[in-house]
Amino acid sequence: MIKYFLVINLLITFNLFSQNCDNFKFLDYNRDKSFNLISYKDSNFQFYANPILGISFENLFGHNQRTTTWGFNIKGVMKNGLSFGLLFNDNIVYNQDFYNRIPFIKEQGRVLTGNNPNRSEFSETRGYLKYQNNWLNVGVIKDNLTYGEGRNSKLILSTKSPSFPALFYEIKFSDWFKVYMLHGWLLSGIVDSTKSYQTQTFFRKVEHEKYFALHSFEFSFFNRLNLRFGETIIYSDRGPYIGYMLPFLFYRSIDHMFTYGSEDSGNNGSFFFDGSYQFSDQHKIYGSLFIDELSFSNLLKGKTDRNQFGFLAGYSNSNTLLKNFSFDLEYTRILPWVYSNWIPAQTYSNLGYLMGHYIGQNADQFYTNFSYEYKHFKFSLNGDYTRQGGFSDVINQYTSPGESFLYGPIRKILRLGFGVDFKYLENIFIKFNYSFFNVSDEDQSRTPDWQKGKNHLISLRLFYGLDR
To answer: How far is CA 91 from the centre of its chain?
Structure first.
């Protein structure tokens, strides 16, 4: 009750203040069909504040749960290009939360502060402070960051893992060339025994530091062809290194400086190539290549040794058969040992959740989606078929010969889904989703019995101020 009392008092305070200030508005409805509970506008500054309220009803493979959400969303922007934002929401799941227990769905990982048979809780905080003009976009951000092509998920950076804070900047040198850099602070989940200690009351656990850096060069030609290439690096056990914040340096060469001639002290680096081509307003092809390790000589000989990469290819069609109708077709293949590393604090993950494509290594997926938009509604019909192979001891990642694709026992997941989204006044969201699953697994210990066979995932979500 205290949190609701604080929210109500905050709204009353703003309302009283707005009565003495012509620029403040309470319950502001604009001509652009946006609605804000509180808004402020003058010649130099604009400010918007909205509460977040929501409720969700879900059935996950036979387990019923209900989630209530409350919070607030604040945004401000200045005429000179400086802007800020803050989004916070607190969530209570009545009954146990089962989203994290089903590893083959793409729902974002939740950091639960409590999970028992009667009640689970998790919260989310996102925000930013940035400056932007015609050639520069720079700032500090904590958000669900993504990078790369892909409709169902992305190879380079997806939203499977929880949000993380980062520094970023983007420099636009011309209409056809720009540079991007991102440096993030991750959670390793690996306890550092040398820094952990016992207090008078509790044992203080300190985790190994973990960082993520990405830089890329982006090219655009003829307003149709977009190409990107760059690197990522995940490093740990040392403070933030400014060398990884300079976009024109070669990450792999910097990593060699850390190794001192030995790979035992190296970091987890990768390359990527990403791009799309728009044939017309209706037709587009796109693809992404994520290279963990690659030997061109072995590849030409047909060997799989140490060739560890993933690729994604897709086709998108819009407004051909019908206005506001779109169609997507996508295939993803990720070879063994992509994203993994022999150092636990340097895997391609944040708090144990993959930062790349959610199907993980040694897996592939066919995905298709049909969608149609009509006024405030969006209807979608989609499906995917996923195969996931085995995962042996990580020492095999560095031992020749390498494993063949889909080695080990295979898990097969067929999913067919249907969804209806309703959006009104930029703030009100109603979402219904249904998915049918058929799961089989040759590894009897990997998938619990309640997840095998034919199952259903059903959700109905009603939100104000948050698109989830």
So the answer is: 19
